[in-house]
Structure formats: C-alpha cells, structure tokens
C-alpha cells in the first residue's frame, strides 16, 4: 500500500435490527422452509426490505385441513394481508419466503414449527387453538408489492 492509497473503509456497523434478523435466520435449517410454485408470477422483480406486500394466505395442516385463511371460500373475510418487509412483525417463514415471490405468483410454503408460530420469541401470536406445533402448509398469493410510503406528521408545532 503506497502513501497515496486511501485508508480502507471501516466495516459498516450493523443496526440492532439487522443483527436480530441475522440471529433469527440461524433458525433456518435445510428443509425447514420448502417452496413449491403453484402459479408463476409475472416480471422478474421481487419484494425487498421496505416494500409493502399485499397477499392472500391460506394455512393448512399436512392433511389438507384449512386452519386459517384470508379467503372467503376458506372461511376468511376476503381481505388480503399487508406487511412491510423488514418492519412488520411476521413469522420467520414469511420473512424468508415473501422476498422470493413475483407479482401474481401463488406458492405453497411448507414450514416446520420452529420457523412459524412455534418459533422461540415468535413476534406474532397465533389464534387460540391454532396447531402451532405442527408442520404446516402456507398457500400464498402475492397480489402486489411496492415501496412503502412513510408519512411523518409533526404534532404540537
């Protein structure tokens, strides 16, 4: 290194949120999250941190019994879920699976309990009677995603 070379850039310090996300990802093991594409999506863009995702989700046992759904035909209200990647509280399987999806894609994610609602310190509470200790199938339809808009409002000024 000559005296004209700039000093090496300091290593970027990770935020506490980034460190927590990395630690959480350590729970993923081969086979704990499996994806099968049911219907291909369009384009080649996938959602990233800071994007709002809008989707339908139907959760089934491995025997095919629907235990929860956003879809009317499966007992839900018909209202899609909305999450902001990297900001919203969600199960680990969603945090890892959503960024692999294209708009319009329908995928089936098979998840071991440790990466859905039985995860240690799971940030989301399942409904009463939910089979959180079972391996489950999550059928997800990615309706749309886009950069989330953040509005700051000054109060009392």
Automatic annotation (TrEMBL):
For the keyword Isomerase, the answer is yes
Cited Gene3D superfamilies? 3.10.50.40
Question: Which residues fall in a compositionally biased region of kind Basic and acidic residues?
Answer: 15-28
Q: Which PROSITE patterns match?
A: FKBP_PPIASE
Is-annotated flag, keyword RNA-binding? no
- Enzymatic class: isomerase
Name the EC number(s): 5.2.1.8
Q: Which GO terms describe its molecular function?
A: peptidyl-prolyl cis-trans isomerase activity
The record lists the catalysed reaction(s) as:
[protein]-peptidylproline (omega=180) = [protein]-peptidylproline (omega=0)
Occurrences of domain PPIase FKBP-type (ranges): 50-146
Q: Which InterPro entries match?
A: FKBP-type_PPIase, PPIase_dom_sf, PPIase_FKBP_dom
Which Pfam families does its entry note? FKBP_C
GO cellular component terms, alphabetically, are: cytoplasm
Q: Which UniProt keywords apply?
A: Isomerase, Rotamase
Q: Which segments carry the region annotation Disordered?
A: 1-32
Q: What is this protein called?
A: peptidylprolyl isomerase
Give the organism the record lists: Triticum urartu
Q: What is the lineage of its organism?
A: Eukaryota, Viridiplantae, Streptophyta, Embryophyta, Tracheophyta
